[in-house]
Backbone:
């Protein structure tokens, strides 16, 4: 037997413990810079239902709501009704766009999900998970509001229901749609 | 006062663990058996003292002594009595104490049980067990003591985490810990073999029952945890590939590989380094699991304490144990060449080899998925969640492969099998599998996993039935009895083999449950008002009212749903959205109707102020097979452990 496996074993163990050591100093509940007030990373990807390419750039100058979801995510189903309701509320405003981002999912599952629960707006597929990393998404559902200048104004982790719904519609989206471009909105 | 006695006992136990290590070292050095006897006494006293420690804590919980910080943090004047005892292991400090207490129980049992037959091994066993006890007691005494007082004394406690106020939680942690800790006994014997250079098959034979017992506890612990998640977390699933679930699953996978590969060393004297490697990995994963859960390195529904200082201590301790164990293995590895080479690729030993590879690859898959978020965070400062799609894609094929091997392994001869004998043994099971797949397909089941699962389960099940049928017939003929008596005679004559087959049958039942309840799960989430109804599968759920109900330490909104099948009301389900008073924590209490070994599962996760409820119905066909399979698996192990000892053992 060669010495190879012994060396490999030692290196693996050292690597593992270095990783654990590093991990100790991070707070698992800390979310990296929420990107509030920064430029929303652009993205491009296929539409879940039609396959056509959607990119964020094409909505420049509008208020965009990005909602990350997955068909295996239970909380997403809980918020689904109110997400649809939210779209209903603002869809007649030409300055408002809503986009779903399908996260870590199988295409057929995602399509089935939309068919079953209903969909009134477009959903883009996050093919390589890069989009989720760009936005610092660590779980679904997660929702971002981007203003007319392409800056992220609001982020919410967890379902948009109840009070959260009221807050995001009345205190975030409505003022943005009404506001002059310079007004800031606290999140 | 009582709590101080417990505190003091624990400190004395810590001192005694040092004494245990020292006396074991002296016993080895001087060859004087008196030192070993002192070591045995030390281990025994540690058990007694930690027992006192546990009891004092239980007592503090029972009298609701909120002057004890740990009690104040994990109990409340309104907490039901039943849970006040389970609250002892409801938090970080208490669960560590439980861990080390169970370790002391097992160490004491092992020392007394094997004292006469394994005199040379005893000092090593005492040394290793004392060292592990020492490591955990240092953590408890210096960094996470459950015996701290709190001044001024609060009027009431903060209450036990509501999610843990559940019957399954009373049993789940002790069971899981018995599994983790149980593997410390074969681990200690393996260490003894490495240090003493007695590298034969003896340590394996001695620890066989211990390993099976630990495995059974781990299996039961995991399944209980799944059951708890199933109805308490309210998402209707029993397994979510959560990091903490994975932490218990990894030692299970490697431990299962170990249970199989020791058979090869026993029969054919092969796989010597491999078996030592496997038991070290199994116990290391138990320790790493404890580290992952207790340090808060990973995000999880279990997110316990985040405390880098404690985490660092556990890491250093776990690293030392694992480092010494692997170091010893590496140093001894040149002495451990197998004397026997494999004769043929078509033989039982080669099937066992594949079994082991599959189990290890499965464990590596889970390991990678669990740690990937941590790796990525370290390298890129990005957060990711590895979701079920990864595990389903990578883990499922491996699991199916393992099930297939399970159908072959027990029925293929050692050394070398002829093609003719293979044909004879396996043509019927192979054919039966094909017939079942065809039948499933015709009845409208087209899912690939369901068909593949149906095939391997039928194949493996048929192999077991055919073999046992043949043997039973043989015994019946010989004894002139009927086939059932023949079966019983065959079972008692080969209890080890057939008890294992019962465990295998349990696995098959479990797998059927998993496949049916995953692939054919139907789910519906709807918003509804009183008077509305929704249909799911053959059932209709009608929300008849929403009202307030109150328990001892919680208030809830309860939805009353009538469940219809056709036009008949078959039952009423009452899911709740509870708010626990002390912590103001909401929980979702599910309501379940069991039918045909499956469940109609209902939760009501949201009720808005204007009376709109979000209801979630799930149909989980055959889900009870999951736990039924677990019970059969455990039964097999118990029969295996209780088998009469044969002379060579």
Residues:
């Amino acid at each position: 037997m060669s010495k190879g496996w012994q060396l490999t074993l030692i290196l693996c163990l050292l690597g593992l413990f270095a990783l654990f050591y590093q991990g100790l100093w991070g707070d698992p509940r800390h979310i990296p810079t929420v990107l509030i007030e920064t430029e929303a990373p652009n993205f491009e990807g296929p539409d879940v239902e039609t396959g056509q390419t959607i990119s964020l750039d094409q909505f420049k100058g509008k208020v965009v709501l990005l909602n990350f979801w997955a068909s295996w995510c239970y909380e997403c189903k809980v918020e689904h009704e109110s997400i649809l309701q939210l779209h209903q509320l603002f869809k007649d405003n030409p300055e408002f766009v809503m986009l779903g981002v399908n996260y870590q999912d199988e295409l057929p599952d995602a399509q089935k999900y939309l068919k079953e629960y209903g969909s009134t707006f477009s959903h883009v597929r996050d093919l390589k998970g890069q989009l989720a990393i760009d936005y610092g998404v660590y779980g679904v559902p997660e929702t971002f509001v981007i203003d007319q200048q392409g800056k992220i104004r609001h982020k919410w982790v967890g379902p948009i229901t109840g009070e959260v719904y009221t807050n995001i519609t009345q205190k975030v989206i409505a003022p943005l749609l009404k506001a002059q471009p310079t007004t800031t909105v606290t999140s | 006062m009582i709590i101080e006695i417990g505190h003091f006992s624990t400190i004395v136990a810590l001192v005694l663990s040092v004494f245990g290590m020292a006396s074991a070292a002296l016993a080895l050095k001087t060859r004087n058996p008196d030192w070993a006897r002192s070591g045995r006494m030390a281990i025994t006293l540690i058990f007694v003292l930690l027992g006192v420690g546990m009891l004092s804590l239980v007592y503090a919980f029972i009298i609701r002594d909120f002057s004890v910080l740990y009690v104040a943090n994990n109990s409340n004047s309104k907490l039901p009595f039943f849970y006040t005892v389970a609250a002892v292991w409801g938090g970080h400090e208490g669960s560590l104490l439980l861990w080390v207490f169970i370790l002391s129980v097992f160490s004491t049992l092992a020392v007394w049980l094997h004292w006469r037959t394994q005199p040379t091994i005893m000092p090593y066993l005492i040394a290793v067990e004392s060292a592990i006890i020492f490591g955990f007691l240092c953590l408890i005494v210096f960094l996470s003591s459950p015996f701290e007082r709190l001044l001024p004394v609060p009027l009431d406690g903060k209450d036990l985490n509501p999610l843990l106020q559940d019957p399954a939680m009373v049993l789940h942690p002790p069971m899981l810990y018995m599994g983790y800790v149980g593997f410390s006994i074969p681990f200690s014997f393996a260490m003894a073999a490495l240090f003493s250079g007695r590298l034969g098959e003896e340590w394996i034979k001695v620890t066989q029952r211990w390993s099976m017992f630990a495995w059974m506890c781990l299996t039961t612990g995991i399944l209980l945890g799944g059951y708890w998640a199933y109805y308490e977390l309210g998402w209707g699933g029993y397994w979510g590939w959560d990091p903490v679930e994975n932490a218990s699953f990894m030692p299970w996978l490697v431990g299962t590989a170990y249970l199989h590969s020791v058979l090869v060393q026993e029969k054919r004297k092969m796989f010597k380094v491999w078996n030592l490697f496997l038991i070290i990995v199994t116990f290391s994963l138990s320790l790493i699991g404890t580290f992952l859960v207790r340090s808060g390195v990973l995000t999880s529904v279990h997110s316990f304490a985040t405390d880098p200082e404690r985490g660092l201590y556990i890491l250093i301790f776990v690293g030392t144990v694992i480092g010494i164990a692997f170091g010893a293995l590496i140093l001894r590895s040149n002495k451990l060449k197998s004397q026997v080479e494999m004769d043929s690729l078509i033989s039982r030993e080669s099937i066992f080899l594949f079994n082991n590879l599959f189990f290890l690859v499965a464990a590596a898959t889970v390991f990678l998925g669990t740690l990937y978020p941590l790796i990525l965070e370290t390298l890129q400062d990005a957060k990711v969640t590895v979701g079920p799609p990864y595990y389903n894609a990578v883990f499922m094929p491996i699991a199916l492969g393992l099930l297939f091997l399970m159908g072959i392994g027990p029925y293929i001869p050692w050394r070398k099998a002829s093609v003719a004998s293979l044909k004879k043994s396996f043509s019927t099971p192979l054919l039966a599998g094909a017939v079942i797949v065809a039948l499933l397909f015709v009845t409208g089941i087209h899912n690939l996993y369901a068909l593949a699962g149906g095939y391997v389960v039928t194949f493996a099940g048929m192999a077991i039935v055919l073999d046992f049928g043949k043997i039973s017939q043989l015994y019946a003929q010989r004894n002139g009895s009927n086939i059932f008596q023949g079966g019983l005679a065959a079972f008692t004559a080969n209890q080890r083999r057939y008890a294992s087959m019962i465990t295998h049958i349990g696995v098959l039942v479990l797998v059927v449950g998993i496949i049916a309840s995953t692939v054919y799960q139907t789910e519906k989430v709807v918003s509804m008002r009183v008077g509305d109804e929704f249909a799911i599968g053959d059932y209709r759920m009608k929300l008849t009212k929403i009202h307030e109900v109150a328990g001892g330490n919680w208030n809830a909104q309860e939805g009353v749903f009538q469940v219809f099948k056709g036009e008949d009301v078959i039952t009423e389900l009452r899911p709740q959205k509870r708010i626990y008073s002390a912590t103001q924590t909401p929980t979702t209490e599910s309501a379940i109707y069991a039918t045909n070994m499956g469940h109609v599962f209902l939760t009501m996760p949201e009720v808005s102020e204007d009376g709109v409820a979000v209801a979630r119905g799930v149909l989980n066909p055959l889900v009870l097979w999951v736990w039924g399979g677990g019970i059969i698996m455990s039964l097999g192990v118990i029969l295996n452990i209780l088998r009469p000892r044969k002379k060579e053992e």
